[in-house]
């Protein structure tokens, strides 16, 4: 076996709980609509929930990674093993990001600014530097878990994490009849078997025999 590359493990692919539609809306509406942090966090949560990208991919986004292709705005995502994929930006997310950039006065008007991070810290007590990428751990702790606890979702969906945003997006897309091969490409999966871990169409709770038992 010497020299044989170990296959990549899927880790928590498929194990993170997916949110229902109502739960996802509650999470999206949790951040304050009138503060810079709230507006930024709402844009971040929407980016995760509407596009199924990984938190590391979100943190690496730069202003120049929002690109028009065939007249449609796309995210240029740098995924695992440095693979590049382009994901169309949902119109609502485009609006929320626009509101955040306007409030943060962070629009990349100059060509030199296009390499700046798309999502930045709103404060930095240690160095004061704001023009830097977010830390993935901060996205987990100060955004996803913060609002999940505030809305009670942490108690409802045990094990909720940033990856739950990806699971929610994938499950929702498949439930709404998106082609699984397209979802595979959208998520950046190397193998469709990984994508199938999110396909819960045959195991919907409402279809369980539990609800057909009558006494």
Explain briefly what this protein structure is.
43% of the residues lie in helices and 7% in strands. It is mostly helical. A three-stranded antiparallel β-sheet has the order 1-2-3.
Number of helices: 9
Q: Which architecture would the CATH scheme give at its second level?
A: Orthogonal Bundle
**How many independent structural domains?**
1
Helix content: 40-55%
Query: Helix/strand-derived class?
Result: mainly alpha
Radius of gyration: 19 Å
For the secondary structure, the number of strands is 3
Output the CATH class name: Mainly Alpha
Order of helices and strands: HHHEEEHHHHHH
Spatial order of strands in the largest sheet: 1-2-3
Strand content: 5-15%
Oligomeric description of these chains: single chain
CATH superfamily: Intergrase catalytic core
What is the makeup of the main sheet? Answer: 3 strands, antiparallel
| CA-CA gap between termini | 58 Å
Low-confidence stretches: none
What does this 3D model show about the protein?
With 215 residues, the chain is mainly alpha-helical. Helices cover 43% and strands 7% of the residues. It has one domain: hpI Integrase, Chain A (Orthogonal Bundle). It has helices at residues 21-29, 36-51, 55-60, 91-104, 136-151, 153-156, 162-175, 180-187, 192-196, and strands at residues 66-69, 72-78, 84-88. A three-stranded antiparallel beta sheet has the order 1-2-3. The protein is globular.
């Amino acid at each position: 076996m010497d020299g044989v590359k170990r296959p990549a493990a899927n880790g928590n692919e498929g194990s993170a709980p997916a949110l229902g539609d109502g739960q996802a809306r509650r999470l999206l509406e949790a951040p304050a609509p009138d503060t810079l942090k709230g507006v930024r966090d709402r844009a971040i949560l929407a980016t995760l929930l509407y596009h199924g990208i990984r938190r590391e991919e979100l943190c690496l986004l730069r202003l120049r990674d929002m690109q028009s292709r065939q007249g449609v705005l796309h995210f240029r995502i740098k995924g695992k093993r440095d693979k590049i994929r382009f994901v169309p930006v949902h119109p609502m997310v485009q609006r929320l990001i626009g509101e955040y950039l306007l409030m943060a006065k962070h629009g990349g008007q100059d060509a030199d600014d296009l390499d700046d991070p798309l999502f930045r810290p709103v404060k930095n007590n240690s160095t004061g530097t704001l023009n830097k990428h977010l830390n993935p751990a901060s996205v987990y702790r100060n955004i996803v878990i913060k609002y999940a606890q505030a809305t009670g979702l942490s108690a409802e969906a045990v094990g909720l994490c940033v990856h739950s945003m990806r699971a929610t997006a994938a499950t929702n897309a498949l439930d709404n009849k998106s082609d699984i091969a397209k979802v595979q490409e959208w998520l950046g999966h190397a193998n469709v078997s990984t994508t199938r871990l999110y396909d819960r169409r045959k195991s919907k709770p409402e279809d369980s025999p539990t609800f057909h038992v009558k006494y």
